[in-house]
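Known limitations

Structure tokens in this collection are predictions and should be treated as such. Users comparing against experimental data should check residue numbering before alignment. To illustrate the layout, the record for Polyphosphate kinase is reproduced below. The input appears on top and the generated tokens appear beneath it.
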Amino acid sequence: MTAPFPPTPLKLLNREQAILEFNRRVLAQAQREDVPLLERLRYVCIVSSNLDEFFEVRFADMLEAARDPLSTVTGQDVDRVGRAAHTLIDEQYHVFNEQLTPLLHKQRIVILNHADRDEPQRAWVGKFFEREVKPLLVPVGLDPAHPFPQVANKSLHFIARLSGKDAFGRDNRIAIVKVPRVLPRVIKLPANLSDGRQAFVLLTSVIRAHLEELFPGRKVEAFSQFRVTRDSDLEVDEEEIANLRHALRSGLTTRHFGRAVRLEVVNTCPAELSEFLLEQFGLPNAALYRVNGPVNLVRLNELIDQTDAPGLRFKPFEPAWPTGRLPRHKSIFDKLKKSDVLLHHPFESFDPVVQMLREAVADPDVLAIKQTIYRTGAKSELMDLLIEAARRGKEVMAVVELKARFDEEANINWAERLEAVGAQVVYGIVGYKTHAKLLLITRREGTKLRRYAHISTGNYNPKTARLYTDLGLLTADGDLTADADSVFRQLASLGKFKAPRRMLLAPFNMHSRMIELLGQVEAAARAGYKAARIVVKINALTDAELIHGLLRAAQAGAKVDLIVRGACMLPPGLPGVSENIVVRSVVGRFLEHSRICYFRWAEGDDGEALFLSSADWMSRNMFRRIEVAWPVIDARLRQRVIDEALLPYLHDTLDAWQLGPDGRSVRISDSGISAQQALMRRYSDGGGD
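Generated tokens:
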């Protein structure tokens, strides 16, 4: 019998504030003295990138919900989240200006404003402006024939107030200057002008210094750079459209001009100009963000990339090839006939996955290849291999998720290229994103057909496989490969759901099975089993039913450890409610991305279950996406996952944060053990095999 919910409904933590809290943890990386200086600056850039997406998607959705009279989101909720965002952004610029910039100066890496530049440097900048910048700038003086221009999402602009009258004697005082995206935002000065330093100028500083040259005969009385962030979720009416690809291709052209949600200006921007801009974009004062520096810190990645200072970066790390389990230059298919191979990225290389597909393309006995495509990037050897396989006459099926946010254009392009060579391309199920990570190869062996599969918690992107922690399984297991084939059939045929043998498939049975397993642990704890245990490692926890399942198990006496990288809406540590639950977040060199669910309800192998999955514990993943989870049956592999991907993170004292019941997280320590660093050392020493 399950325990009742708490007498009064438990107030879950706010999702948007939980996302901002995650970014506060990322920003803390920029303040760590044990992190190399340029990497600290990169974390500042990452926060900017994350916040852009937060405003484009989450905050935009929140604003929309607040307008719906049936929604539970209130104006007070929006104000509270907005204030938290203002605080975080102010802190971000403080870290950049007051902490990192002085440290960069000490390393003789400087960003020179106009006032800092000497005459030879100003002369060089002037010539650069005249040659590279000015020809691409089009200042627009506003009047009835020149209305306020279309301002694309996140594009850089200047606004200027001019003195006097224009050439036609009219008193049009306001002008807008668009800065094309093709212009570099960070320019490195020549060495002979840098006095032994690495000196940079920002494009905004170059334009500021020469802004008046764009308005001959008039003075610039006041000015500011500005940037507007817009709602960028691609919306299509999936019940009305006939062709999803064509609809999304059309939507990409209008995405950049969605509803404005945030306006950024420099903190010296006169109120007259900021109020004018707010009025043009239809924004309230709360949407104005005055920043002490460039309005787009993301572009400082260009400074990092141009700086010659290897000692100020992370030491290079080369992922290991699992030589003991998968000898190089030998057939991967032959190896998988004997045993499965588990890969732990980025500590182990993603190359075996590419090699498996490469081998399949070259093998005349391989008849068919099926793969899901979510985020592969604009350049992808894997996609090139699928195209080559189709050219060679193999049956190629690609399930391309066209609505992978901000990767839509790349995926549409891959879909068109695959179709052009005869591959069968499907776009999953209308209304459900295909987020599962599956590769299935069918090979003729004698008189039989045999399947080989790769199943993963992460994307088919070799670049991010070096930056994200993920787990992937190479297998010839008959049950798992049959399940993978049934998933592809489901996506192509749209037939009735038939439960796979071992896999769980969202939106059909994954959520209900997770609830069952939570209930199984809860029942064991109520029956007196002292070792009842749940450990879940995911990117986000926001599904209310799963949260309450965790609470019931914890209240029954089970020990619950959650390793949640990002947003977590479960408030841990509440007496009598969640005191048996510990929520950790690990933020280190690599982005934690693997999803692992462990349950123990009795002694022995039959008393535990461990699943790897593509899905986070969010309602969207469980009910509005195609996701897979699969059990790790082999006891040896299961123990390896526990030993490498769970236990080290439960004992991390360097990169780990602990969440409090109020939604604020506290870093556990500034010294001790880093799970990621320990795994890097282990694999560098060959210990992975």
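For this record: Confidence is low (pLDDT under 50) at residues 1-8. The chain is about 35% helix and 20% strand. Please report discrepancies through the issue tracker.
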